[in-house]
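Kindly go through the entry underneath: sequence plus fold tokens. Please state briefly how this chain folds according to its tokens.
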Amino acid sequence: MSRTLFVIFVTVLVIACAPRPALSGTELQAKDAPDFTLTDGLSGNAVSLSSLRGRVVVLSFL
């Protein structure tokens, strides 16, 4: 029993002391999405992203 607790304690200690990866890289900057046109699956009409400016857009690729 005490050996099992010792092994668990050492394992937790090693994991807790392991170096964490540095967060590096470039900071993302907001960009406008490129304009594109899709066909509405229900009505068959063409819809462009620019025509939906200012509205919430949800795309589902099923």
In short: Residues 34-62 form one domain. The CA atoms of residues 31 and 53 lie 14 Å apart. The first strand starts at residue 37 and ends at 39. The radius of gyration is 26 Å.
